[in-house]
Request: fold
Amino acid sequence: MITFKNLEKKFGKFHVLKNISLMVQPGKITAIVGPNGSGKTTIIKSILGLVKPDSGDILIDDKSILDKYLYRKNIGYMPQSASFPENLTVQEVIKMIADLRNDIIDIESSLIEILNLIPEMNKQIKNLSGGNKQKLSAYIALIFNPSIIILDEPTAGLDPVASSNLKQRILEERTKGKTIILTSHIMSEIEELADNILFLIDGRIVFDGEVKDLIESSGEQKLEKAIANMMTENANGTYN
Ligand code: ADP
Reply:
């Protein structure tokens, strides 16, 4: 369980996170949605320890993570666009990360097959397509069996087979009780994958609950329309 307590963050005069309190449940997939600049990445970076909040606390399993780092070993993170050392091969990158983590992995696990990475193993990073870099990034986020998985736009740039296989895999991780956070601009994908939704506008939570409740409360059939309605209402001042 990840808990945020009254988190505040400013970058200079920009108040980016405003009194964020929430609980991210294990065994569920939680999607963070919101317009560009609403604070989604800042929330993710706060969990990763890459952004230090001005006040408030973040707890993982009831322990504060602020100024700590060992907890990060239990997090698998797939950034929106990953960068790896350009001259290393895919296999060398995987080995390097396993060595850094002092972990032993079965490099040829089913994960490498479902992502169709085998033909890429001996290619240098600089020669990989964007989609294959994304697959490597997904592989690294999942292969170490982390209890928390954070995926920033996981299917962006993936071919349909890899995208479908990765989504299936994410759903399997949920059944293992993992805590999964993802962002996506594709609302149908969120409907397909997520149990819960955290909807941010301008650094404030405007909805935190089940995806089905958000859709139901809007009187719409689809998440995309429900979210669009909430954005319009917010622009009209309803949530301010
Ligand atoms: P999102 O991921 O929802 O697009 P972000 O969390 O990246 O939003 O950004 C929220 C706001 O914080 C934006 O206005 C962005 O410009 C600002 N911001 C993010 N990181 C920094 C930073 N390191 N320095 C200054 N402003 C930042």
Observations:
- Residues 11, 14, 16, 34, 36-42 surround adenosine-5'-diphosphate (CB under 6 Å).
